[in-house]
Amino acid sequence: MRGEGGRKANTKMAQGYNTRQHSLTTMKALVLVFFLITVLRRTICVGVAPESGVGVYIVLLKGDPVVQYNGSIQGFAATSDSNGRKLNASSKAVKSYVAYLVNSHDTVLERTLGRGNYQKLYSYHHVINGVAVQMTKRKADILGAMPDVLHIEKDFRFRTETTHTPDYLGLPTGGWTLEGGSSNAGEGIVIGLVDTGVDPKHPSFSDQTAKAYKRSASYTGQCEFTAEFPKGSCNNKLVGARHFAAAAVASGEFNSTVQYESPLDADGHGTHTAATAAGNYGVTVLVNGFNYGSASGMAPRAQIAQYKAIYRDIGGFFADVVAAIDQAVKDGVDVLSLSIGPASIPGGSAAYLSTFDLALLSAVKAGVFVTQAAGNAGPYPSTILSFSPWIVSVAAGTHDRTYPNSICLGSKSKTISGIGLARNFSIPRLSNHQRQATTSATGTNGSSFYRLVLARDAFRNLNTTPRTDGCQDSTLYDETVVKGSILICTYDLNFLFGVYNIPAVVITAQNLGAQGIVLTASSEVDGATFSPTPLGFPAIIIPNSKDSLVLLDYYNMTTERDQHGKVTKFDAVGSISGGEQATFSSSPPQVASFSSRGPDINSANFDVADVLKPNIMAPGNLIWAAWTSIGVDEQDFNGQNFAMISGTSMATPHIAGIAALIKQKFPHFSPAAIASAITTTATVVDSNGRPLLAQNPSTNVAADLGPASPFDFGAGFVNPTAALDPGLIFDADYDDYVQFLCSVPELSNLTVYKAINSNCGSNKGLPSDLNTPSIVIGSLNGHQYVQRKVTNVAATETYQSSFTAPTGVMIAVNPRSFTIQAGESAQICVALEATDSSNVTSFGNLVLSGNAGHRVRISIIISTRKQKVETDFQL
Fold first, then answer.
1. 300 with 283: CB under 8 angstroms?
2. What percent of the chain has pLDDT over 70?
3. pTM score
4. 724, 720, 493, 689: which is closest to 12 by C-alpha?
5. 24: left (phi > 0), else alpha (psi -120 to 50), else beta?
6. For residues 537 and 421, what is the distance between their CA atoms, to the nearest angstrom?
7. Per-domain residue ranges for the chain?
8. Out of the domains of life, which is the source (predicted)?
């Protein structure tokens, strides 16, 4: 895994190549296909080793893991007696049972394979009962046929998928005030992250704050110390740090001098996500010597435990990730944040029966709230890479901060807007004959204009030098031509593919003595999303070919050439301004183009599941947070301590931090209750009551912008303050999720038993029976009744129900009105009947409005795929 449930959306690529299919030529379509393949390979995951060789396999064995064991084995006391209760990993009962499991693992392996014929990498015992073993395919087949073995799965890889967002989400004046302010928000809650590690020296993780941190009494995790992660690296803020690399080492790709056999983050991704979730309040963001504001995590007083299982350059391996999850749950984290995910739908009959998802099911049984990145494979439908109803899958949205800059051409006759973050330094002015005189203008150096030089007009040898004007190599250009000028380079597919990079352009310009840079977009990258890049040098990216052509037309009209095309006089001038100061538009969020979309699927055949995915949307575009100076994941931020990057990886820790705030206020809340509070209070409209929009909505990806649906944003955009006062919740526990698995038509009783060691009863029910804060039916045939149970977590209140029916569906709700006492529960029945068979999914909602101000909203998503059946169904 790497960081989205896949890798984060790279600010140069996966942030969104917003495909406008209606305007693509055949060549552009081919380029797009190649580009998307490149993106998926880079941002999600690569394939496993050849099947015939030695590989790593995860083996599930009969017998309950610690979080499920009920004392059924003589001589071993129960370790689990209730859902959601933290287990004492150091208790005699747990230690004794763990020793029993490890011994049984070794016995099965030695008896079946023979000592010396395999290498055991991990014994899993807390969330799953099993092992990770390096062995040949033949040995794996032998082991898989043993009666003690329930399931065997080949290891695969995972990839990774804020200064302003706390304010944008209203936390300082809303949610944090309900917790006692920023100095108390998240106090006593431990957020665990499975990621690329952490930079322990970063001020976002210092415990030297005005209010001292106290060690969590319920967290038992430890810090692992090495030469590069010495004693003292952890503290009362960073309370846990470990690394898991056995499968990575076994792959032969691990290099300890690059990836580090320690919790140290050599990538940057893990440091960024940890700080977004729970970084200290008010940490100054300095990049290239400029102050971009102050950063804070969503739960600034929560504590952090980092479980490194993803590695720079190679990503992560399934066996290592499961070991990290197992350890995190054993240690007693309250929230588990996973900005990682699989490359594709796991093999087998249901996506949520992968060992990964089953491990997270046990984590939920242990009371751990789990959130995972939805993936960065959007905007196309069914690209979601987080599947199960017990996991909160997070989509990425935009927010309202931008860093605008512009270039003024000539005597202020034309100004073109662009993308920046470029630092404007005081640079000596050109002489009068090199620039056009101006009156007052804000330029690269105050009121100065500078000569514009097109890169291809500055080649040393115009006859033999290839016409590549990406400005990556200063030796190709004539310094005497470029010096004192603004250099115009071309931003083309080489930048999107990662062949070229912007820092190299800066180096080229500095080596040649240029005063600024303009990057003009070629037509091939029209529709791509560009990010501000803090360069410490005057620069601007013009993000579309139309505006770029305006600049180039002006340049060509004012530039004199001889009969061979060589420039004899440069008369074009320009001035770059802005790029440092943020502007805030108060604009509503939009679903980011790169964010993976629903519907959820329940098998490798892409059958639509009766489960809403994604579940929630949070800010995930251009997020400032901590970075490690040795990180290389984002070239634009090499050597920096902060980075502004994008992806569902960045959205996920927002939800983790908000979950910590809810857990602090409601310690008794189950993971499902926390998820309900977050989703039922989300917003689906902007401040003017207009529906939220999506970049390239999944219902029409050809549109640049259009109405978003729950398949784009789940329940909506998160509202932390409302989530801390939800009124009603929809709760579910481990047994409910087991019943859900039993109800899935594609799963037999034997399949479920092999996955979770539990037998299904005779009454299997329907997947839509699960008490989730949504109603999703992938194929409504005739009519169906859906029951939901709500629990009041506020004072006594009277609720009125209202609904918007999906197109082609009749709905009735009973009761239409009810009064519910504090702490009590009530049943709600929703009757649905198909009125057509359009085979088109449609969307509605049910809203419960309380007289004390609470408003509880759930999505209704229906596909009427078969003809209506005449019955005595009553609405």
1. no
2. 81
3. 0.83
4. 493
5. beta
6. 9
7. 55-154, 158-169+183-400+587-681+688-713, 404-581, 728-863
8. Eukaryota
